[in-house]
Amino acid sequence: MRTCYNTLSAAYGQCAPDCTACEDACARLNSAGYPRMRSVHLPEMNFHGVITCNQCGEPRCIEVCPTGAITKDEAGGVVRIDQARCLGCGLCDMMCPYGGVHYETSMKKAFNCDLCDGQPRCVDA
Amino acid sequence: MRRLNSGDEVTLVSMEQCDPYSPLSLPYVLGRRIKESDIRLRDAKSLRRIGATIIRGRKAVRVDTGAGEVIYDSGERDRYDRLLIATGSEPLIPSLEGLEEIGFQGFHVMEDLEEITRKLQDGKEVLIYGGGLVALGLAMGLMERGCEVKIVVRSRILRGYFDEECGALITRIFEERGCQIFSGCAIKTLRRSDGQVEAVLDKGPAIRTDFPIMCVGVRPRTAFLEGSGIMVRKGVVVNKRMQTNIENVYAAGDVAESPGFLMGVSGLSPILPSAVEQGRIAGANMAGGELEYEGWIPMNSFNFFGHRAVTIGMFDAEGEKIEVLTERDEAKQQFKKLVIEEGRLIGGSFLNIPLSAGIIRYLIREKVDVGESQKLFLEKPNEVSAWLMLRAEKRQTMPLGM
After folding, report:
1. pLDDT at position B245 over 50
2. Distance separating alpha carbons of residues B386 and A51, to the nearest angstrom
3. Which of A37, B98, B114, B325 is deepest in the core (most CB within 10 A)?
4. d(CA B375, CA B326)
5. CA dist., res. A33 & res. A36, Å (int)
């Protein structure tokens, strides 16, 4: 039996070229200051979109984390990375097929989208 | 097993006394980036909650596959209906004159971390013999702790993970931080001298240190399987279902010799992601499931002093059908390498390149056709890899929640 959760979706085919509004809002408004949603602009292929955490049903990142720092909230389905237990090893980023993890080398930590605990800032932007 | 709602009784037996943890965390504890208490994966209580028991401090010395029993060093025995061998790997001991007298110190398990921490009370000059990821991770942890580190390596550092160009950039970064690296050297003898240890090399002057640590590689821990009838070559041989030649015995992780994804040959893949995936498949099949392993892909992520090095797949492949694209920027300390075979990515190597390593892994796994965009891929690996992934996933909209 699978549980269904609330979702967010982005019609990325409609992203404006070079727009970084969602990424900026995310970086500005979340606590760590690093964006968990990243814009991807490839004008050569006329492609403009975003990548972020898909909140997978069976997250590979959780499976591979050496300290168990990543958990999936049972009620809301949100995947969270506990910064206190994050080693910054980068394995979560290595296993996520969707580019859902933002690995911040300077901080030696990994971040993912936690849906802003209900009020995603990117949507407003 | 629990995901399949199996009610089977599960017992984990470990030769270590402490709660389960990943050895990958050890350099970070040594470097004081994280506390020892924060690296525990499970304890007896959380295991009980999922119906599993853990027995600590018991070492298996023999397996009787006929009777279905594991025999321990204490003489005690345990019966099993199905057995998973996940005994991991053990450190290789180099044959050096004087090593027995000085005493072998490795860096593999929690006990080693504790012993090294004790030794550091008396002296902070450490010599590491070896240049792989364990050696470098150890070096990083020690340097972050303020130790003076010297590395002696028979060839060059990270030879098994990065090519020469990238390896040279990484060497320089370590040297800039005060680490002395002696490449192309072997230790001939170790001996005590004036309250320290002296390492005599095959070339150049001898090196002095407070204590040496051996990190010259690992091999599967399989000695206890002698006489059991379980097939062991480089490791415990398993098929796609993680099953050994004995029907009710499975193996997973560092100890297993399993099918590889890229070359179609079996081999060892002693990395955490492989261990976890193999364990999951073995567990499911032991509970009556029908999962098949797609095979391991070599991959490593090494972050050090604010830099990040990533390799995935066959980073050093060469051949007629193979195209290799590289670009190096010494000033920015950046390096990128793509290995493409018949239009498909089979390997990648990146130093300080912002991108999602998992997307590169996805492209290799799914054998995505890179098409005509190879040069653009090298120029903008972050954007092109994301575009290729999203295109392969045929996404019109991007679901951001589940």
Report:
1. yes
2. 8
3. A37
4. 10
5. 9
What's the rounded Cα separation, in Å, for the pair B277 and A6? 28
Instruction: For residues B158-180, give the mean pLDDT.
Output: 93
Q: Is the CB of B306 less than 8 angstroms away from the CB of A47?
A: no
Could you tell me the pLDDT band of residue B329, with boundaries at 50, 70 and 90? very high
DSSP B248: T
Whether residue A35 is predicted with pLDDT greater than 80 in this model: the reply is no
Which of A1, A6, A70, A93 is best to mutate for the B interface (most B CBs within 10 A)? A93
Consecutive H or E run containing A111: strand A109-112
Which of A1, A42, A79, A86 is best to mutate for the B interface (most B CBs within 10 A)? A42
- The answer to whether the Cβ–Cβ distance between B303 and A97 falls below 8 Å is no
Binding-face residues of B in 273-332 toward A, CB within 8 A: 273, 276-277, 280, 299, 301, 303, 306-308, 310, 312
Strand order in the sheet with B69-72: B60-64, B69-72, B77-79
pTM of the model: 0.90
What percent of chain A is predicted at pLDDT more than 90? 12
| Cα–Cα distance list, B397 to A12, A78, A104, B394, B400 (Å) | 6, 20, 26, 9, 9
Nearest-10 crossing angle of helices B357-365, B381-392: 50
DSSP conformational letter for B24: G
Tell me, what amino acid is at B31? G
Dihedrals phi, psi of B274, to nearest 5 degrees: -70, -40
Q: Residue A43 carries which DSSP code?
A: G
User: How confident is the model at residue A10, as a pLDDT?
Assistant: 60
Residue A46 in contact with partner chain B when CB distance is under 8 A: no
